[in-house]
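JOB MANIFEST
job_type = single_chain_structure
chain_count = 1
residues = 229
[input]
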Amino acid sequence: MRALLIVLAFMAGQPALAENTRTITVAGEASVAAAPDMATLTLGATGRGKDPVTAMNATSEVLDAVIARLRAQGLEERDMQTSSLRLNRQARWDSKAEKEVFLGYEASNMLTIRVRDLSQLSEVLAAVLQDGANSLSNLSWGVRDPQRLEDEARRRAVKDAMDKAKLYADAAGLPLGDVMSIRDTADPIMRSPLHRNAPVMEAMAADVPVAAGEIEARAEVTMIFAIGE
């Protein structure tokens, strides 16, 4: 019973101790940019036919040629994945005859690829277009080791918070104490200033120009420092 009373007395004293502790709370943020070293995009083919098989075969032939081309360009199987396969019945309404007019079927087959050698990207795009791909979208940029970029952003965010705390303490004429807590207030955000979703024109240059820009990782932290005596 005596031990329980001692523990309760100790716990009761904790809020008072916390209330008497003077602190400085600051937020730190930082961003780190790097050139991307890989790209991801979706490409494929859309075809039409009077029956489902004809429509689907039209896209399958193109995708077979595209996949063969990508393999020849050095893309690995792990970097190619079917992301969409659709077949839709096409029709229109004839208002004069007051009936539906059947037009056929439309099929689409989309492949998402990852290009790890950016020096090949323009050549890859031009090649698949020549092979019959008529849909290109969702070009985005990335880095193979995002953890390195994210960790550097975190380190700089902590340094930013510590610099601010020292500045505020010095300006107020107060001694800065130990770090009491660090809270990650946001997951690192990987941003690319260039994100494209562009339809393919019927006539394109032999090489498709692309601009990679930079990838940016951002981090934010909140730190609490004790004020020394």
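[summary]
Helices lie at 2-20, 52-72, 121-130, 146-172.
The mean pLDDT is 84.
exit_status = 0
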